[in-house]
# Entry
Amino acid sequence: MSRIRKHEKEVQEFARVRALRTEETIERIREVTERFPYVDRQPLHSEERFTYMTNTVTVSKLKEWYDDATRVEGVLHDSLSRFEEQALVYRRSMLSDDLDLERIHASVRRSDIPSQYKEVLVHPNELLRLSDRLTEIKEELEDDFRRLKKGLDGEDVVRREVDKYRGELFPLYGNRIDMGDEGTVENDVLIFSERGIYTIEVKNIKSEGNQFLKISKDGIWYTRNKLDGEWRRDENSTKIIDQVNRHVYLSQQFLLRHTQKRISVRPIIVISNDNVTIENETEWIVIRPNQIYSTVLRGGDILDETLIRECHDCFVRNDIGEAKFKVRHYGSMVRGLESEISFIGECTELLSEITHGDAHQKATGH
# Structure
């Protein structure tokens, strides 16, 4: 029985000391948090922002935002490293056997300090997720940049090729016209020549790796990534034909509306890289950039210079400019993360004051 009573006394003494230490810790946190100079902090991502820009402007802005993110990444990493070091000390002091952590957290949640600081005191590791968030933003930025840049690079290849023959070919790039209820139509390239008018659809697809492209007789596009691989239907590429048909139809309707003449607009699809191997089983013209000039020369139409100029000027006068597309405003996201750096510093200081007070208490026995 004496051993049982001794054990009970030890349990009671442990509980008494634990309660005392817990109250001392709660009081220390209260003292520090009551005098701490908090700064108003807006929620990091209360809502996602978007903007509207042309693809050309978007590529430039994405590059700018990526550079900003890289700059912020270094500063944020240093700030979070200091916080993580201090948070480790703080967590170790809170996870002591002689502290009632649930009671401490309950006290913190009932306090009047700003909610963001409460979260740091209860879950300090959550703040470290900011680094992961910035990494995600950079990856998304890079993906969007590469996708759009690849398309613009393909159009630049075609532009340089076509411009070799100015004087004989009269091109318009990115011309966009409004067809009312039928919507707008934007031709990557329009070529006006004595041998006809052409709309060129530029695709920089399958530009990396071992790539093979086949367009079957029924207009279905297939791809494979090695010579003996299995052909797989490519739904996105198959839609190219529908897109080109729409451009041809609406461009012809536009000319009929403005010239009162039925003038053919002939389609050409240009794959603007030399990487992919093409097998074309259809009557559609699917070529490389360096085949554009010879393809136009073989055209069946014969147009006089006056009509060529009339059609060309018609498209120029009615050009409404490059389309703008919805883009995630990565710049505001990066700036939001950058504004967190000062908050991280404040949290590091807050945890330091609490833990240093704890170290002092242990050293003095008070």
